[in-house]
Amino acid sequence: MKKISVIVIDDSALVRKLLTEILNSDPELEVVATAGDPYQARDKIKQFNPDVLTLDVEMPKMDGVTFLRNLMRLRPMPVVMVSTLTEKGAQITLEAMALGAFDFVEKPKLDLSQTLSSYSEEIISKIKAAAGVQPQQLTTKAMLEVEERLTADAVIAKSTKNIPLKTTEKIVAIGASTGGTEAIKTVLCALPANAPGIVITQHIPASFSAPFAERVNKMSALNVSQAIDGEQILPGHAYIAPGDKHLLVERSGARYYCRLNDGPAVSRHKPSVDVLFRSIAQNVGANAIGVMLTGMGDDGARGMLEMRENGASNMVQDEKSSVVWGMPGAAYKLGAAELMLPLDKIAQEIMKQGR
């Protein structure tokens, strides 16, 4: 079986070394070359014709976004951005995603060696997904010991209490991961200012969630913001989970509120879509509209099924328009959604269900 060939582009020799070691540790991947700047990268790409690139955001001679813009115009190929956890890094990475980058991984400034190694599973999975290969299920004893896969029970117990009666006010709950930042932007920008209140869990680092919300807010007719604990969910507003907290929805009387939770990762994610969707199932019931967008893995599938069992109307993004049809595919195969739609039809269906 031919290995997935990768070129690592980063101005830091240490990062190039660490990423090379991480990727070469997987039998399906091979780093065929590294480059310290975009000009070296250009020559290496011509020489090795790789399947995937990892690309640093901030580099000498030419920044990563400028290089990516040129690359996508002249020779489109899968690119995974490697970005520092800073506000500037977040803004640039979001711009890169808009230009066609497949996904991104974190490059913290401190404890680089230890922290990058802890993200090895995520990095390997994203490279494989970028190459069009289904990420292999990691079943090594070491991985299982490092990270136990918890369910939503770790944050919110499954309730048997009465489900809220159906009312005229709707709440839309959206879950997404890989490719989700652009998919969420597409949906929110297609919704009118009188759309129902929307809560969103996107797998995203903590320093990226606020800049992401600000960026979409400038483009959308909705008021888009990072969710704040205790704030009321209002029509015409969208609330995005912070990148390091679970977002839940609570009901008090006829009103709905955002609740943030600092509990453990669920399905290896924090925020977790399963946590949001379970809270919606229990506190919103038939007043909810569930939407699952592009994403790797199956986080949210079980929560969406609970939503449907409690009367919610659910839809998933179709495979053709998804960057990765993991999360929407898992939900659909589980019977958690009635509808499967292309991305450009989802906003219209939200408004139809909302009426």
From TrEMBL:
- Provide an example Pfam family for this protein: CheB_methylest
Domain called Response regulatory: residue spans: 5-122
- Name the EC number(s): 3.1.1.61, 3.5.1.44
Q: Which residues form the active site?
A: 177, 203, 299
Q: Where in the cell is it found?
A: Cytoplasm
Residues modified as 4-aspartylphosphate are 56
> What is the recorded post-translational modification?
Phosphorylated by CheA. Phosphorylation of the N-terminal regulatory domain activates the methylesterase activity.
The CheB-type methylesterase domain sits at 165-355
* Catalytic reactions on record: L-glutaminyl-[protein] + H2O = L-glutamyl-[protein] + NH4(+); [protein]-L-glutamate 5-O-methyl ester + H2O = L-glutamyl-[protein] + methanol + H(+)
Keyword terms of this UniProt record:
Chemotaxis, Cytoplasm, Hydrolase, Phosphoprotein
Entry keyword Hydrolase: yes
Q: Does the keyword Cytoplasm apply?
A: yes
Domain-level remarks? Contains a C-terminal catalytic domain, and an N-terminal region which modulates catalytic activity.
**What does the function comment of this entry state?**
Involved in chemotaxis. Part of a chemotaxis signal transduction system that modulates chemotaxis in response to various stimuli. Catalyzes the demethylation of specific methylglutamate residues introduced into the chemoreceptors (methyl-accepting chemotaxis proteins or MCP) by CheR. Also mediates the irreversible deamidation of specific glutamine residues to glutamic acid.
Family membership noted in the UniProt record: Belongs to the CheB family.
Protein name in the entry: Protein-glutamate methylesterase/protein-glutamine glutaminase
Annotated organism of origin:
Methylophaga marina
